[in-house]
Specification:
Shape: elongated
Bound molecules: iron/sulfur cluster
Number of domains: 2
Oligomer: single chain
Largest sheet: 2 strands, antiparallel
Radius of gyration: 16 Å
Length: 84
Amino acid sequence: MSTLRNFPSCTNYRTDCNCAKKEGDDIYCIGLQDTDFGDKPCPFFKTEEQVENERDHTIKILKERKRYDLIEKHYPSYCTRRYA
Ligand code: SF4
């Protein structure tokens, strides 16, 4: 049995969203518990590229402010790559 069935359906039908997982003809959202936005599009839609760009921008700002503690706390995989 699929574990994705525990997640709500993506009401935007966006397979290019960072949170979307497709199984068969169904698309599930692994980022939200509630995907009912009425007749409006999902306000949380982001492509993987958008997420990566925002993460890189945030890390750049944190580095400028020498907040390495926050980088290590919120982006541990970045630290593993950079300091390994
Ligand atoms: S965040 Fe929105 S667009 Fe992305 S998978 Fe979830 S419901 Fe769909």
